[in-house]
Structure formats: structure tokens, C-alpha cells
């Protein structure tokens, strides 16, 4: 049974059920997802950490054909986040080798410039403006294109194809064409980076892969598309939800505007309380495993409710006392966390500086939520200044 709540901190949580049980009365419970599939929901902080770090809770077993799929959009079985053990470690080393702190910091100036351009365009377009279409969605896509090395001239077509990654089960010739086009495009791009490497992530992946034992072009295409899938909606939705929380609380916004040094700590609190990734991907066990007072059987999906776990009180009773799990934990912990943090901090700082009187132009009870999927987000968020 679910004890999901519709409202947390005075804000609606959206279409996904979020078991949030700070008192720990039922840390593991059987519940049904919006698509009707039953899952073990783990929403206690300590148990959530255990499931994410315990290799008996396997990602590869969860994508096996006989395990029910908890979401219509699941990463493919050969994606980095669907592999276990050595196969995962090999890919992870390659991506981590290319995703260095230096490479992420070097993106800082690009993020600042692109965010400023988008804010200029928003100001010029008049108010009220849609913060999702104007800022939260285009910024991470530009950053990913820049990072992957998609040439400027191709970015417009790329922008049209990317949504297909989030609707892979979608029917219709148009979707199949877009899926073909983006795969074909990435294959060609990787071929050209092999011949003429640049300073971008794909060239770095090719080089790292060559040092680790070659990746085929197909593996590189899957990896680049996995990065786009992992890094686009999650960041766009997180920027939107961060502004929703901030603008819902004008005193909090004013404090940040007056002292931008508070932004990094505020970003962590926004990630904890209003995460765009409210759940982990599902896990499955290959033999019965005892978790708290239940026995998980093979074939039963297990989901960590990160948003609920983030609200478990620590030993001194403080709900904000534990480091949050919004970027996961263990071998699959988010590789893009530093990049997401950098984008969030930059966009919050620049936006409050540019629009010191930014306010919601929406009734929070009428928010336009995206359908339940891997991330929580809004289709639009109107603001004025
Ligand atoms: C606010 C934005 C983001 C959030 C909330 C987020 C959240 C997460 C979470 C919870 C996981 C672990 C899932 C699990 O174990 O079931 C994960 C994994 C991952 N994330 Fe992120 N992510 C974000 C942004 C990004 C970005 C910008 C990138 C890269 C461009 C990225 C790349 C990845 C990759 C590659 C993995 C899989 C790692 C592995 O399996 O070893 N993420 N993310």
C-alpha cells in the first residue's frame, strides 16, 4: 500500500506516487506504479543506501525480459546504467576517464554565456515568459551538444530529434524516422571524431576507450545517447523544480539574491527536497534477499524512492541531516552530478541577478506536469518580473 502524499513543503509533488515515511513505519512496502506494475518501494534512507550499494540488487537482472517493467521509458539493456559487474566497470572507467573535473570546470564559461543569452532573449520576449521553454530546457541541451562536440550548424536538427530518446516506445513513422536520424547522425559524428579528434567528450571517450580496450562504434553510439538521455531531461526538470521551490518562497529567493554565496548550499537543499529524479532505476535480485522485515524474491522489481529517503530523519531527528541521495549511490551513482550542480548554481545566480523581482505567474495548483516518467518535471512554468 502506498502512503504517497500529494503535497510536500506546500508544493504539489506531481503525477508520480512518492512514498515518504519519515517515521520509518513501513520502510519497504509493496505498491503499484502508474502503469499498474507492482514494486517493492524502499523509502527509508538507511535501506535505500543499502539497496543502491549492494551488488545482490542487480540492474542487469531488472532489465531481463521476465521482470515487469516499472516505467515505459527504460534504458536499453546495453546502456551503462543497465550493466553489472565487470561489463559495467569497464564502461564506467571509460566515461569517468573522459568526465574529469577539469573538463567540467572548463564548461563554466560556456554555461555562463549560454545562460546569459537565454536570459537576454527571455527579457526581450516580454512577460509573462515560460521559464521551461526559455531557459530550463534549452540550457542543458546546448551544454550537452557543446560537450559532446555536436557542431553548431547541426544543433537545430539535433534539437528536433532528441525528444525521441524519451519516447522510444512511441508509435508512428515520424518517431521511427527521428530515432533513425539521431542514431545515424551519432554514428557519422563518431566516425568523424575518430578520424579528426577534437577537445570534446566524444573524442575523449574514443581515446579513453582505446586505452581500456576498444569500444565498437555501436557501443560509442549507445554511450553517447545514454549520456544525452541521462543528462538532458534530468537537468532541465531540476532547473524548473528549483525555480518552482524558490519562487514559491520569496524570502528564500531574496536571501539568495542578496548573498549569492548561499547558492551552492541552496542547490543541495533543492536537490534534496525537490529532486527531478525521485526514484532510482529498478533493481532485481537473483536469489531471495531479506530487506528489513520482507523477503524480496527474484523477478520482483525493487525501486528506491530517493525523494522519500531524502526526507528520513537522521539520528538527531533532523530531516535535512543526511547527505541526499538525489544522484544515487554506489557503482551507478550519477557521473554527471558535478555538471548538473554547476548548471544549477550558474543559472540560479544569473537569473536572480538579471530578474531581481522574478515571480511565479502560475497558480501552483494548476501546474502543467509532464506525464509520469523517469523524471518529474513541468511542461511549462510561467514567470514575470
Ligand atoms: C539534476 C540532474 C541529474 C539528476 C537528478 C541525476 C540523477 C541520477 C541518478 C539518481 C542516477 C543513478 C540511478 C540509479 O542508480 O538507479 C544517475 C546515473 C547516471 N547519470 Fe545522472 N542525474 C542528473 C544529471 C546527469 C547529467 C548532466 C549527466 C551527464 C551528462 C548524467 C549522467 C549519468 C550517468 C551516465 C549515469 C549512470 C552511471 C552508471 O550507471 O554508472 N546525469 N543520475
From TrEMBL:
GO molecular function: heme binding; iron ion binding; monooxygenase activity; oxidoreductase activity, acting on paired donors, with incorporation or reduction of molecular oxygen
Record-linked InterPro entries: Cyt_P450, Cyt_P450_B, Cyt_P450_CS, Cyt_P450_sf
PROSITE patterns given in the database record: CYTOCHROME_P450
Cofactor(s) named in the record: heme
Keywords: Heme, Iron, Metal-binding, Monooxygenase, Oxidoreductase
Pfam families, per database record: p450 (PF00067)
Listed SUPFAM superfamilies: Cytochrome P450 (SSF48264)
Family label: Belongs to the cytochrome P450 family.
UniProt name for this protein: Cytochrome P450
